[in-house]
Amino acid sequence: MRTVEEAERIILENKADLGNEIVLFTEATGRVLAENIKADRDMPPFNRVAMDGIAVKYEAIEKGNTVFRKIAVQAAGDAPAEIKALDECIEIMTGAMLPESVDTVIPYEQIDLNEEGAVVLSSIVAKGQNIHTQGRDRKQGDILAVPGQVITPAVLSLITSVGEEEIRVKKLPRVVVVSTGDEVIDVRETPKPHQIRRSNNYTVQSILKDNGIHADILHLPDEADIMERQLAHCLQYYDAIILTGGVSAGKFDLLPEVLERLFVKQIFHKVAQRPGKPFWFGKHENGVLVFAFPGNPVAAFMCTHRYFLPWLRATLGMIEKPAMYAVLDNDVTFKPELVYFMQVKLLMNNKAQLIAEPVTGNGSGDFANLADADAFMELPADKSEFKKGEVYRIIMIHRFRFHR
Amino acid sequence: MRTVEEAERIILENKADLGNEIVLFTEATGRVLAENIKADRDMPPFNRVAMDGIAVKYEAIEKGNTVFRKIAVQAAGDAPAEIKALDECIEIMTGAMLPESVDTVIPYEQIDLNEEGAVVLSSIVAKGQNIHTQGRDRKQGDILAVPGQVITPAVLSLITSVGEEEIRVKKLPRVVVVSTGDEVIDVRETPKPHQIRRSNNYTVQSILKDNGIHADILHLPDEADIMERQLAHCLQYYDAIILTGGVSAGKFDLLPEVLERLFVKQIFHKVAQRPGKPFWFGKHENGVLVFAFPGNPVAAFMCTHRYFLPWLRATLGMIEKPAMYAVLDNDVTFKPELVYFMQVKLLMNNKAQLIAEPVTGNGSGDFANLADADAFMELPADKSEFKKGEVYRIIMIHRFRFHR
Which chain A residues are closer than 8 Å to B199 by Cβ? Predict the structure, then answer.
């Protein structure tokens, strides 16, 4: 039996490198960059007017001039106008390129403007005011975003600003989610009293969708021959296979045997955790990974978040981000020498602390509470008493909790 | 000029009700529920075996019996087998329906099992052990999820378990993002020295995509006639129009005038905030809303998060969630009597507190830092000195910061 940390380390050691591909910038949101994005020009690319008003040469102000003749109006996007004398000004708009002959912008609020010219009302005019100078934010050639960064809307904003139409991103793994077990029937069928509907495959598919990955789904009956034939196909077509069910010690848990016959080598079986103890992890000789999670819905859900998503991020070369923690809000007792992944709801107190309230459940099979939970709190195996006020790591299970 | 709170309140008062539609469960992730999801059966639907082992009647144990004849093997999904005598047992698997004739499950670890029968090794056997009793989690008819809940993977898990194929969800608004301004050229073009590429429309589109909304995009030149014609079309086809640029006091900021001619009534113009002061908000007589954000990329970015997304959530009837806060990590001075939306990076300390580090920027036009920021911190207008250690509200701008 492996510890949670060993299991995680082994899984991350088995990260894949699936190479890169080119996508159009319009399809790039959520993908992981595989190239540097560089500034093609200074940012801003010119001395950029930051207020609507008039542009003058400061020398005139210094000499006490307060009356200016307007010789042009220059909007953002216009080629710059130029003054020829110190008593001339240009009416100029935010975003315009500052003409070379002027160096100071006096906003509408500080002038009296008519068709012919302007009178400066304010006595406080500073040389160079209201100008966002060329290259102040970034210089041409500066690196704006690096490989491993997720293309968030803000990164996309940089990509479009520098005119990158085609972006090199990491290839996404091809994933199939395979449910097993004769006890689970299709969503569309009516279950007999001893049957239940299968939801694990759709749920895991939904988690992956929420993380930017399309996964196919497949269901296998508890028959070794059919399992072997179908999984043989999967091993040819996918980079990773997520199985749910069929890996505990039960008589009909055929998967480990079938996988062995298909040359999928077991890397570990069982992890010291609840739920999810029977988690089986293996690798085919061609490199395809098999994550075989227990069929219990909470276990499959937790294992997808705690093991598959970190593998996915490592495989995509995503820059490592810090873990999250929360303050436990109740005393909790958990005796077994296992890491306990406890469902919690998150709140934030007035000190900006995350507070975790346990969601009362009835053991590992209870997935009805999952919809009310925000995270799993990871309670270590070497303790059995967990006190209100102690801080433990959490694993977020969705993105919708805080949003205002 | 409106305060941020007034602007928000007015926008939320103008939430739309776009009605409901039916989607297949396979397309439902991320949508907002418009109906109750009820348990069609008890959860679990039967007394569910929770460990692999043998099922016996506790009466036999009570009488001191430790040797049992195996009369059947019952896997999960099998119709239940029944014993006829107290010295009989059923080898039984996790997930199976507990037969009526037995009431206790003794796991493999506590027995010595062969083809004919089993010897119980443990002296500690409790009546009813290792059984997840029928209806313990939820009763038939219980409400599992309610209108306004986002269909997270966990909610989808419930939906599929109860066999709901078609789900009633809130209709999504049809949105168009319209950039304006002659100074901005297409991403694919090479800018002249005084031009820049437009990124606002793609960036706002990307934010909406990240929030589950497809938006069309459109660019308008600074020509009143073209603007009027194109916007007249938009007012027929969309529920909301997001405009970027063209609403400050500049001579070529034609939009408010054009919108008035199209019977879009101004609800407010200008909000006491930086960036984003020239924000214009209006409503057409047919109910279409116009969010006209300033063209400055950081302002358009911030306004989309602070104003459009709350409108979207209200329009979708999403259950209100708490705001987020963080501890300011530096002293900050901001003199103007405006709310200052400061770009911050978030960290978490060992007390599970969110800590906000200002991302050094060069004023409102600097969007190069946005890619490094995690949130805007909302610093109130009635103060100008903000001290390290004080707690202020934050508006998250992407979902990728914490993920392990």
Answer: 156-158, 160-161
B355-381, pLDDT tens digit by residue?
999 997 655 557 888 988 999 999 999
CATH domain B324-396 topology: Beta-clip (2.40.340)
Please answer yes or no on whether B250 and A370 come within 8 Å at the CB atom: no
Q: Are A255 and A292 in contact (CB under 8 A)?
A: yes
Question: Which superfamily is assigned to B20-41+145-170 in CATH?
Answer: Molybdopterin biosynthesis moea protein, domain 2 (3.90.105.10)
Binding-face residues of A in 119-158 toward B, CB within 8 A: 132, 136-138, 144-145, 149-150, 152-158
Q: Which fold has domain A48-132?
A: Molybdopterin biosynthesis moeA protein; domain 3 (2.170.190)
Residue ranges in chain B whose pLDDT is less than 70? 247-252, 361-365, 399-404
* pLDDT value for B404: 35
At A126, the pLDDT band (50, 70, 90 cuts) reads very high
Measured distance CA(A80)–CA(B299) in Å, rounded: 25
CATH topology of domain A4-18+172-315: Molybdenum Cofactor Biosythetic Enzyme; Chain A (3.40.980)
Pick the CATH number of A20-43+149-170 from 3.10.450.350, 3.30.870.10, 3.20.20.70, 3.90.105.10: 3.90.105.10
pLDDT in tens, B241-289: 999 987 666 656 788 889 999 999 999 999 999 999 999 999 999 999 9
- pLDDT for A10: 98
Give the Å distances, CA to CA, from A297 to A203, B53, B70, B336. 9, 21, 30, 54
- Predicted confidence at residue A322, as pLDDT, reads 84
Q: Which of A43, A327, A348 sits opposite B322 (nearest CB)?
A: A348
Interface of A with B in 52-71 (CB under 8 A): 52
Chain-chain contact of A210 with B93 (C-beta, under 8 angstroms): no
The pLDDT value recorded for residue A403 is 41
Kindly list the domain boundaries of chain A, sorted by start residue. 4-18+172-315, 20-43+149-170, 48-132, 324-396
Contact check, Cβ <8 Å, B251/A136: no
Q: What ipTM describes this predicted complex?
A: 0.92
Chains A, B: CB pairs < 8 Å: 372
Nearest CB among A163, A196, A371 relative to B154 is that of: A371
